[in-house]
Design goal:
Elements: H1 12-29, E1 87-99, E2 105-116, E3 121-126, E4 132-133, E5 141-142, H2 145-152, H3 158-171, E6 177-182, H4 183-192, E7 196-200, E8 204-206, E9 216-218, E10 221-225, H5 227-235, H6 242-263, H7 267-272, H8 274-281, E11 285-287, H9 291-302, E12 309-313, E13 319-323, E14 329-333, H10 335-346, H11 360-367, E15 370-375, H12 382-392, E16 396-402, E17 410-413, H13 418-428, E18 435-437, E19 447-451, H14 454-458
Parallel strand pairs: 1-6, 3-12, 15-16, 15-19, 17-18
Antiparallel strand pairs: 1-2, 2-3, 4-5, 6-11, 7-10, 8-9, 13-14, 17-19
Helix pairs in contact: 1-6, 1-8, 1-9, 2-3, 4-5, 5-6, 11-13
């Protein structure tokens, strides 16, 4: 990808500061506008920018929301992105106060944004923070720990580098840039644009953080939320939909930010006043984007039509529920389902890359699992015949024992083997409620098959 250099007259410190601020412009402009109506609230409600009602009046110290309206009358936006390659950005929301050992924190939000500058299409995918993945250089864990481990162990590139590599191998798509934004900076930015207009679909109680911690009971309808309430709305986990509903609300808030910027033509003022506004936000943003990158991507994003933008959440169709070695609830990704979702959102087809190739037997062979067979079927020779068949397909049967008795066959995944499980479940007729995920990264066995008497009559082994 071609990197554009800033003009020589732009000083280094200003370049970095403007790039950090520009991430917020990028957040708002990479996504489709959403048509919300104005809120019809009581005339006595506090009013924000443009006189729109607010639930809570934002407190602005220094730069005010009105400042972003000011730009020279003859101000012309710079050219858009000139590169031809797809641009993908990993956005991570970070609670800077949620620090652990060594000052590291887990990512609270992960959203992958992608824009095709030639086709003028864009999309975003929310990645649930409890998804269980392989983290390069570390043992499998929840994906929200990738940033934490990178910061804690001070690996090259820190938390962003580890998080980018983890998301790349999980989604199967290269990540070009990252932006880490803490909660305080997000709140401040939303207040600077006068709040964000949200269509609340169902009653929800949210708990803001910061100075105003009074719970807010939001009723259905269109309303403008100030920064702290918008953040609480996006982070609420205990209402309907759990983490998946939470991801949908996060996307709704980001869409609302873009809608706000476009609806009131705030982009010229944001860019023209970026140096002053950065002073309000700089401590809360970390990114490898340059000013030139951000501004050109933002201008490009304005050119993307709403019908050419797709959004999705990795949800129940792309995962199965499981338990971690320390008995935490986790989400086990189904790779091919995630790749299908990725291709739909980012390209509308399968141009990003093929799904895992081959037949189900070839996929099992490529995964090369170590399998243990516990024969409780009552047929002494059934374990040996099953072992011989699986070995012929490329699996390594490291244990084959008999004992006890059970009626139904059960599959146990120890280290994360989706293709092996899919093949065995189909072969043996094992439903999802008899597939157990008991992760143990140190286990010498990848998959355990507990043969039941149902396998005696069901098997079609040669």
């Amino acid at each position: 990808m071609r990197r554009l250099k800033l003009p020589a007259f732009v000083h280094t410190h200003r370049r970095l500061s403007l790039a950090a601020f520009g991430v917020f412009i990028l957040l708002g402009l990479l996504l489709a506008p959403v048509a919300y109506g104005f809120a019809h609230m009581a005339a006595t409600s506090p009013r924000g920018l443009f006189g729109i009602p607010l639930l809570v009046q934002p407190s602005n110290n220094g730069v005010t929301a009105g400042d972003i309206q000011s730009a020279p009358e003859d101000y012309v936006l710079p050219p858009g992105w000139s590169g031809a390659d797809r641009v993908t950005v990993l956005i991570m929301g970070l609670d800077a106060r949620d620090t652990g050992v060594g000052g590291a924190a887990r990512s609270d939000t992960m959203i992958v944004l992608s824009v095709d500058p030639v086709a003028k299409t864009a999309g975003m995918i929310s990645v649930p923070r409890d998804m269980w993945v392989v983290i390069p250089g570390f043992t499998p864990n929840k994906i929200n720990t990738a940033y934490y481990f990178g910061e804690l162990h001070k690996v090259p590139g820190g938390g962003p580098a580890v998080a980018m590599r983890t998301v790349e191998q999980t989604l199967g798509v290269p990540i070009d840039y990252y932006a880490v934004i803490d909660f305080d900076a997000f709140v401040r930015f939303v207040d600077l644009i006068g709040g964000v207009k949200i269509d609340v679909k169902a009653p929800i109680t949210v708990d803001p953080i910061g100075a105003d911690t009074q719970p807010k009971n939001l009723q259905p309808g269109v309303q403008v939320l100030p920064g702290n309430v918008a953040l609480a709305y996006a982070r609420e986990r205990y209402s309907g939909g759990g983490d998946f509903g939470r991801s949908e609300r996060q996307q709704q808030v980001i869409l609302g930010i873009r809608n706000r910027i476009l609806e009131f033509n705030l982009l010229p003022g944001l860019i023209a006043n970026a140096p002053q506004l950065y002073a309000e936000l700089s401590s809360g943003v970390r990114t490898n984007l340059t000013l030139q990158d951000v501004i050109q991507l933002a201008v490009l994003a304005v050119q993307v039509q709403s019908e050419d933008i797709r959004q999705a959440v990795i949800g129940e169709q792309q995962i199965v529920y499981g338990r971690s070695p320390d008995e935490l609830s986790i989400l086990i990704p189904i790779p091919d389902k995630i790749h299908e979702l990725r291709d739909y959102v980012f390209t509308g087809n399968s141009n990003l890359g093929p799904l895992t190739p081959g037949s189900s037997e070839e996929r099992l062979s490529a995964e090369a699992p170590n399998i243990a067979i516990r024969n409780g079927s009552g047929d002494v020779g059934l374990g040996d015949r099953t072992a011989q068949y699986l070995s012929s397909l490329g699996a390594s049967v490291v244990e084959n024992s008999s004992g006890g008795g059970q009626a139904a066959t059960v599959l146990v995944d120890r280290t994360g083997n989706p293709y092996t499980l899919a093949f065995l479940a189909q072969l043996m007729g094992v439903p999802s409620n008899r597939i157990l995920h008991e992760f143990d990264p140190d286990s010498p066995v990848d998959v355990e098959i507990r043969l039941g008497s149902d396998w005696i009559n069901r098997n079609t082994l040669p």
